[in-house]
Amino acid sequence: MQCAPIDISLGPLLSRRSLVQGFAALGIGLATPNRAGASKFDQAQVELVWKATGSEEFPIVAPEGLALFPDGRIHIVNAKRNQILVVGPDGAFVDVWGEAGKGAGQFAFRGVDGSVIGDIDFDADGNTYVFDSFNYRVQKFSPDRTFLMEITGDGTVDGTFAEVGGCVDRAGKRLLVADLNNHLTVFDLEGTLLWRIGEQGVEDGQFFWPFGVAVLADGSLYVSEIKGKRIQHFDSEGGFLSRIAGTGDEPGGVHDVYYMAVDAQGNLFVSDPIHRRIQIFGPEGSFIGLIDNVPGYGQFGAPTGIAVDEQGALYVGDGFEQCVLKLALPVLG
């Protein structure tokens, strides 16, 4: 499931804006968002817990995907440095790993045109999966970061990956890979193909540059699309269920969508960088509310990677301000 910046600090925002230029007039992915329940969320009750910027030697630069590991550490795709940066539960810098390249343990999160994209997740055994977007693969590492394998597609010529995003379904023991070739491919955790759906299009069940994937407790899936400018909901075996959001500037509408997260109650959090906001949808797809101005921080520059912990705290990367935030939220629902 994200050309070229004129300034390094503006890269993530400009990369995203360039993708939507020339497509808005097509009306791709139009849907009327369900705004029921919008009054349930008051963003004035959001609290800034901490702001992480890395260290002096290893600053956060273009944070993309992020994941909350069981030990409480947050692993961040530090895209412009082609590395994974780790901060602790308090936001303090811990370490970095990885480097630029095409070999095992090397990454390419930054394209030749300056665009940045990439994601990371883990399974129940503590293995790490890095969605190494511009190397067109997923790399798997053991808990001690030993390289285990790479997956570059489903084994067919037509099934090779383009830029990749996705996540791990820990309960279902599945690896879910969305790629810009307009497919969603599902593997077991040893890399064996289970099933694959998708083709280019804007109809239900088709994709136009899918990237983000989020899994609900029942095994069903949300898939976001960059050029499709929408979010689709599928059952656990890839059957289309509904559209959650479609193109629009008003609350409940989206443009290019990269990163999403689901909390324990099934609420969906969507990073909406063009509109500089986080949008929240309920378990049935109803629009609950948004966050576009955090007390003590202000407006997002360009929200990117996003995650929710078991206590309901929200973690958000800001690709313009070069940081990751931890936010305490009011109770939803």
Span of the ends, CA to CA: 29 Å
Number of domains: 1
Tell me the β content. Answer: 35-45%
> CATH topology, anyone?
Neuraminidase
Portion of residues in helices? Answer: under 10%
Q: Rg, please?
A: 18 Å
Mean model confidence by pLDDT: 87
The shape, in one word, is globular
Could you describe the largest sheet, including whether it forms a barrel?
A: 5 strands, mixed
- Please, what is the CATH homologous superfamily? TolB, C-terminal domain
The tally of beta strands, per DSSP, is: 27
The CATH class, by name, is: Mainly Beta
- What count of helical segments does DSSP give? 1
Low-confidence parts: 1-39
Biggest sheet: strands side by side, in what order?
Answer: 16-17-18-19-20
Notes on the structure:
The protein has a single domain, classed as Neuraminidase (6 Propeller). It is mostly beta strands. The strands form seven sheets. A five-stranded mixed sheet has the order 16-17-18-19-20, with no helix packed on it. The protein is globular. It has one helix and 27 strands.
